[in-house]
Design brief:
Layout (H helix, E strand, L loop, with lengths): L1 E10 L7 E11 L4 E6 L5 H9 L6 E6 L2 E2 L5 H4 L3 E4 L13 H9 L7 H4 L5 H9 L18 H12 L6 E5 L7 H17 L3 E5 L3 H6 L3 E6 L2 E7 H5 L3 H15 L2
Parallel strand pairs: 3-8, 3-9, 6-7, 7-8
Antiparallel strand pairs: 1-2, 1-4, 4-5, 9-10
The structure holds adenosine-5'-triphosphate and magnesium ion.
The site of adenosine-5'-triphosphate has 13 residues, from strand 2 and helix 1.
Length: about 260
């Protein structure tokens, strides 16, 4: 189980721009759960993921995996068990390296040696196979610099890369937002298949309410650093997009947006 216990997050503490985003925030995610996270811009979704990955410090509380606190664990160590696809297609890949080099690096994540040894051309067929599932022709671009790929192609490759190592957690931050509707659909289905096949515990932030409703076994809605709506299991199954949209709209009206 992944658990955030009484987490407090304050941005720019002690300065005029101080902003308390989370105050005694609690969330538990069971092993094997696929959690969809929705919520308005600035509600704290990416910050929540950053806290779990150790990318930003917290001012109070604890993050635990099982009974063990991971607060002292450095970000790179956490990534041994966490795969992450970022909101920004430019993150998570190295633009000046080829797709092959990026995939090799991703597969060697957490191992104690550099790029020289990480490049393993005999793996190229395996990478080709993995990429071909995307149906984007990326299998023919192994020797292209990743910086020359489109944002969507990069994002799709990043998803494959994030699951090349044996991870327990998959963290997705609007990973289909940069994709055209057809590719987004394909990537979403593939994501679901990967999560099931590898028995991952997944958290997916999305602004696509249909994906949030259709995929995963639990949904939460965030607003201003709080969880304002939550459904799991059969109750989530019964949800439809209109229900979630109505709650979303009602909250926005309350906030005056
Ligand atoms: N590095 C930072 N320094 C100061 N404030 C920050 C920082 N990162 C985020 N914030 C603030 O924290 C709040 C939550 O931001 P966050 O990026 O977590 O939102 P989000 O729910 O992911 O939004 P979006 O849907 O737009 O991606 C916002 O008010 C934002 O301005
Ligand atoms: Mg965000």
């Amino acid at each position: 189980m992944l658990e955030l216990k009484d987490v407090t997050k304050i941005y720019n503490p002690g300065s005029v721009t101080e902003m308390c985003l989370f105050e005694k925030f609690n969330l538990s995610i069971e092993k094997g759960e696929f959690l969809s996270i929705v919520g308005s811009n600035g509600s704290g979704k990416t910050s929540l993921l950053n806290i779990i990955c150790g990318s930003i410090p917290i001012e109070g509380g604890e993050v635990r995996i099982g009974k063990r606190s991971i607060d002292k664990m450095k970000e790179f160590k956490r990534y041994r068990k966490i795969g992450r696809v970022y909101q920004n297609p430019a993150m998570g890949t190295c633009p000046n390296l080829t797709l092959l080099e990026n995939m090799s690096l991703a597969e060697n994540k957490g191992r104690p040696f550099g790029l020289g040894r990480a490049i393993n051309k005999s793996r190229s067929n395996y990478y080709r196979e993995q990429l071909s599932v995307l149906g984007l022709g990326l299998e023919n671009k192994l020797y292209d610099k990743v910086g020359s790929l489109s944002g969507g192609q990069r994002q799709a490759a990043a998803l494959i890369m994030s699951t090349l190592t044996p991870i327990d957690f998959l963290i997705l931050d609007e990973h289909t937002a940069a994709l055209d509707p057809k590719t987004a659909e394909l990537i979403m289905q593939l994501t679901d298949e990967l999560i099931k096949a590898k028995k991952l515990t997944a958290m997916m932030v999305t602004h696509n309410l249909r994906y949030a409703v259709e995929y995963g076994n639990r949904i939460i809605m965030m607003d201003n650093g709080n969880i304002v709506f939550e459904k799991a299991g059969a109750e989530k199954e019964a949800l439809c997009v209109e229900d979630v949209l109505k709650i979303f709209t009602d909250i926005s009206i309350e906030c005056g947006n």
